[in-house]
Amino acid sequence: MSRLIVVSNRVAPVDETKPTSGGLAVAVLAALKRSGGIWFGWSGDVSEVPGEVVHKVRSGRLTYATFDLSTRDHEEYYNGFANSTLWPLFHYRLDLANFSRRNYAGYRRVNAYFARKLVDLIEPDDLIWVHDYHLFPMAEELRRAGVANRIGFFLHTPLPPLELLLALPEHQELMRSFFAYDLVGFQTEADRRSLLDYAIQEAGGEMAGDTVFRALGRTASAEVHPIGVDTDNIERAAASAAAARYGARMRTSLGGRRLIVGVDRLDYSKGLPERFAAFGHLLGAYPANRNRVSLMQIATPTRAGVPEYEEIRRALETLAGHINGEFADFDWVPIRYLNKSFARRTLFGLLRTAQVGLITPLRDGMNLVAMEYVASQPPTDPGVLVLSRFAGAAHSVPGAVIVNPYDAEGVAEAIQLSLDMPREERVERWQAGMEALRRNDVSRWREIFVSRLAEAPFA
Ligand code: ADQ
Asked: Which amino acids bring their CB within 6 angstroms of ligand 1?
C-alpha cells in the first residue's frame, strides 16, 4: 500500500491532550491516526532564524514533520495573503479582503519553501494530499521540482462563485495552480461548480467526463467529498463519566433553566453578532423565555495578528453586554460568553447538556461543531440542531432545523420551535442525523479521497 503524506499549514500538537480549535487539524488528526503516514507542515512557531531543519516526531503510526516560519513569512503568507485576502474572499466578504502584492509574493515564497522541504521526504510511490487555501501552489511547485507522484487537494472552505474570484488581482496564477493536482476535493457541489466555471469560462478548459476536466494542458478530477467527524469516538466521549461530570456542573449552574449552545472559532464568518441579535429577539418576542433559557457561546480567539479579528471580538463583547444589560436578572445571565478553549471531552459534555445547538455561520465550508453537537446528544432525549443554510453541513446533516442566519426573527422562531419540539420528533430528527454521521465519518472521508487519488491519473 502507498504511504500517505498529508501537507497542511498547521499540524495538530503531538500532545493530544492539548486542545485543537481548528477544524482542519481536528479532522486530519482523526483521519490520519487510523491510517498512519506523514503529516508535514508549519510547527506553529515563529523564529527569527527559521533554520533549515525539519523536526520529526513519531507518535504511533504517524510521523509529524514540522518546521518554523520567519516573522516576515508569518506576516505576509499567514496573516497576510491566506487570512486577510483568501479567507474573507472565500467567505464572500469582499468588503474585508485586503489585496497586497507583497503579501502575495510572500505566499508564493512560503509555498516554494514548503515544497523544497517536502521534496526530500517523498518516495516514488507516496500519495500526497495537500489541504486548504494556504497551499494552492504546492502541486505546481512540486511538479516543477520533478515530483511525478499523485497529488490531491482538499479545500476545507467554500470556493466562491466566479464573479467573486475575479476580484482577486492574482486570480489567474492562483486558480491555475489548481490544475497541477490530479484530484481536487470540495465540501459541496456549489464549491466544485465554482472551480469548473473558472476552468471552463475563464481558462478555456473543457469537461472530459462527469468530474474530469482539462485546462491548460492538464487533466484533473473535481469531486465533492464532504468531510465528516469521528462519530463513534465523539458519541463515546460525550457519554463518558468525565463528560458527565462537566454536564452535571453545567446543569447545577443552570438551576433548571434550559440551554442553547454555540461553539466557534471567533471569526466573522461564523455569524456571531447575528446570532446574539437573534437570541435577543427571542427574549424580546417570546418573553416566556426570560429567566428560563440561557445562551452559552464559546468563541475561541484565533488569528490575533489580523485586525478584523480584534474588531469582531470588541463588537461581540459590546453586543453581549447590551443584551445582558437589557434582560438579565439578579439570578440569571442571558448570554454566557466565553473566550476559552476546552478539552474535547469537556466540550462534548457541555454540548450534550444543551437543548439547542445554535450554529449559524454566514458562510462555512462544512462546520464540524454542528456534527459534534448531534453526535454528543443522549439518544433517548436529544437536543435539536438549528443550522445555517450557508454551512456545508446543511447538506450533510439531515434532521437539523435549517435557518437563514441573516433573518434574526426567523432564527428566533426556529429556536422557539426547537425548544417546544416534542421528544418523538427530536428523536426522529436526531436518528436521521446520526445515521448520516455514522455512514460518512471522518475515516470514510479519508478512505474515499485516498482511494480516488490512488486511481489517478484520470486522463
Ligand atoms: P473551522 O473554521 O475551524 O474549520 P469548524 O468546522 O467548526 O470550523 O471546526 C472547529 C473545530 O474546533 C471543531 O472540531 C471544534 O470542536 C473545535 N473547537 C472550536 N472551539 C473550541 C473550543 N473553545 N474548545 C475546544 N475545541 C474547539 C475549517 C472550515 C470549516 C470546516 C473545517 C473542516 O472553516 O468549514 O468544517 O475546516 O473541514
From this structure: 19, 21-24, 26-27, 156-157, 227, 263, 265, 298, 300, 341-342, 347, 364-369, 372
Is 396:381 a contact under the CB 8 Å cutoff? no
Q: Which long-range contacts does 235-240 make (Cβ < 8 Å, 24+ apart)?
A: 235/375, 235/376, 237/344, 237/345, 237/348, 238/348, 238/349, 238/351, 238/352, 238/375, 238/376, 238/377, 239/352, 239/378, 240/345, 240/349
Q: What is the DSSP string of 385-420?
A: EEEETTBGGGGT-TT-EEE-TT-HHHHHHHHHHHHH
Mean pLDDT by 10 residues, the chain (459 residues): 91 72 76 85 84 80 91 96 98 97 98 94 95 98 97 98 98 96 98 98 96 95 97 96 94 97 96 98 97 97 86 93 97 96 94 98 98 98 98 98 98 98 98 98 94 92
Quote the ligand 1 centre to 26 CA distance (angstroms).
7
pLDDT at position 439: 97
**Sheet-wide strand order for 293-301:** 335-338, 293-301, 258-266, 356-359, 384-388, 401-403
Residues with Cβ < 8 Å from 131, sequence gap 6 or more? Answer: 6, 7, 8, 9, 24, 28, 153, 154, 156
Looking at the chain, the number of H-run helices and the number of E-run strands are: 17, 16
Cβ count near 163 (within 10 Å): 10
Q: Map residue 34 onto helix, strand or coil.
A: helix
**Cα of 201 to ligand 1 centre, how many Å?**
33
Cα–Cα distance between 179 and 184 in angstroms, integer?
9
Question: What is the reported pTM?
Answer: 0.96
Q: For residue 22, give the C-alpha cell.
A: 481548528
Q: Which atom of ligand 1 is nearest to the CA of 267?
A: 2
Element (H, E) at 9: strand 4-10
